[in-house]
Design goal:
- The chain is extended and about 125 Å long.
- The strands form 13 sheets. Strands 15, 16, 17, 18, 19, 20, 21, 22 and 23 form a nine-stranded mixed β-sheet that branches.
- By secondary structure, it is mostly beta strands.
- 5% of the residues lie in helices and 39% in strands.
Amino acid sequence: MATTTRFKRWAAVLTVCAMTLQTAWPTVFTAPVTAQPATAQTAPELFVTEIHPDVDGADHYEFFEVYNNSNKPLALNDYTFLYRYTTGSTADKTFTFDDYTLAPQQTVVLWWNNTNKTLDEFNAKYGTSLSTSQVIEFDGFDGFSNSGDRGVVIRNKHHVEIASSIYLKADVGSGLGIHYKLAASGIAADKLYTKAAPTPGALHSGQIPAEPVMFPDEPINMAPTIAHTPITDGAVGTDLAVTARIDNAEQSTGLDTVQAAVYYRTVSQAVYASAPLTAALDSQYSGVIPKSALQEQELLYYIQAKDSVHTVTTDTYTVRMDLGAIDYNRMPHFLVTEVVPDSTNVNSADGYEFIEIYNNTNRDLNFKDYKLQYRYTDSGPEADVIWAGVPEELVVPSRGTLVFWVINGKNDTKTVADFNANYGSSLTENVDIVRVYSAGMANSGKRGLVVATNTRTELSAAYYETDEETKPDKGIFYKYPVDGGTTMIKYSAGLLPATPGVVSDEQVPPVTVKLTADTQKPTVTDITGQATVDQANDVDIVAEAKDDQSVKTVAFYFRSNADTAYTKRYLAESFADGFYHYKLYSPDLIGKSYYEYYFVVSDGTHEVTSETYRIQVTGGPDRSALRLNVADGGFVSGTYVLKATGEHAPAEELELSIDGTAITEDTYAALENGAYSPSRRRASTSTSRTV
């Protein structure tokens, strides 16, 4: 780096240069140079031959030079280049640069181009004519120090330091650097010249060893070969077995290993998925394309085998899938057709994430009987988070869409007009777009969006896997399943602009599900079987709901005697018994007199409401209308505080009598129980009397 003492340094340089040969200006050879004697095989294969820390003028052209002291091309990215504070005052810094392979017995200049200068400017600075293959730019630090003890250290891929070139403050001058030669032993290079003129790309007599490090020729690694009979036909609902013979000469001798996989996608999908192929006897490999992937008329696949050097890939083959007779009437009523987990930001968060669903029936459907669920794929359905649209009740027309716009706290002030402007759409709030309040969708990691009934019966599910699929304002598009399942087919991810409210013909079936007339109402029966519960115990509320088609909603409403309004909960069908359960826990029962509840059940067309049921809560303190804190016929002695309590009467209306004589003095209002009693507090009149 340049300092403010450049002119003084020039004077010092001239003085020192006249005193000693080592610091004399070197003779530069661009032709083959005279090598120094050295034992080549003990020398490092790479070392730094020059460092230029202090450029005269602005520090735009600092560099260091590296020499390949071997008989083989070396990938510099297999090594780590460190900027070292030799006093240990600061941790090493790692230089970074693009991939580069240095030819045998050649140099490369690593330039810290901190101000985006051109190579022509670099050459003009040093009077050179280096090409782009001779100069690479690097980063990872803030420039070479002119006043501290520093160095460049090279570490190999085994994390062993093989070479270091160190300089001191006294070695550097304005526009003058250090040139190095290999030492007779050790990893530290000797200084050939200090305070010397820069010579990027050129070496000096005596700077390199007489012979390079001679690496032995590596045995030729033969590429694997794949023998495979293409699969021509498959059937939906059945895994597709894939076999191949993969030979590799080095694997048979234990010198190398082969990894193999089959890559596949449906004809409408843009991205290949993969399944591993496992080795068996006689170089036979086998694997399975899962039946869940076989959902279209054509499947594309290829096989790939890798060893430590080679990657071999077969041709891409097409499998004709027998879809059987597609029953469009058994397809999901609602389809998830598009998801955008990443969008233009608003206040540093995604402002326009959305999920699009499609009504795949011949009737308008009220979405109040359905919910959107956000799924953490690896955690399973039990961890699903319910995302309710606001408003909850909204009719989706036949063959129409509904867009759920994620409101995450950062975009609360944005309007549907802003949403439309972002995507070029024309949606109307609470007609074909609703808000869903959530922190939003992950841009990386496996997630899913599910449409299910309020009873948690899944209709359709759309999944995405990686951040390569989530691009700002790009849609992840899905088409309908053809295997009778609920998993949507992902056919384009992160490639095409999002189209909220619009579906293409390939995304949806050619015909809709034909819903038959629903003339029967659902039924609901309370089978709890309890009229009372002790407050120390939980109580399981159980309902049986039935319908001739399907039960889509079982809503449970409940309140205690302490509540004015009912609380609403949606109940899911139990896989264990087919009933609908809700548990009231003991802590919620303490201090309550009763709970009352009822059910509302919907089949999507009809809605029925049960009668209201009541469970009395027992246990705990006495709740008689009038009561004393002594039992009838009981005995007391000494001084005793006698309390009379009215369940519904205030303290001032109570009168306490002993042996028929009213007590009118020394009475006062008090709590019936202590401050920490879990029971309900009642005002009471009490008196103190010695019996």
